Amino acid sequence: MSTWADIDELDDHYLGLPGANVVATEALLMLQDNLADVMAAKAMMCVHGDAGLGKTLSVNTSLRALAPADVCRVQFRARPTPRDIRHVLFEALGIGGTPP
């Protein structure tokens, strides 16, 4: 399993634009503050909004800054079933044995 540090920052945004820099907008900073609070509470958070607003970039940038050693990226196929999610998470977290 690759760690967050093994993933190039260009992959944080779907376009992977060389030479591009992240701009700390108010929305990004708010997301980072909220994510820090959620992580401190060991809770869950949902980020939602219209396409193209920067949700993925903001989350990736914030996680890279807040907890690079504690994050693993997973990717699900389109319309994953609960079984798919269970198996992907089971593998990503390195849990031994067979998923329930």
TrEMBL record:
Pfam families: AAA_22. Keywords: ATP-binding, Nucleotide-binding. GO terms for molecular function: ATP binding; ATP hydrolysis activity. Residues 42-95 form the ORC1/DEAH AAA+ ATPase domain. InterPro entries: AAA_22 (IPR049945). This is ATP-binding protein.
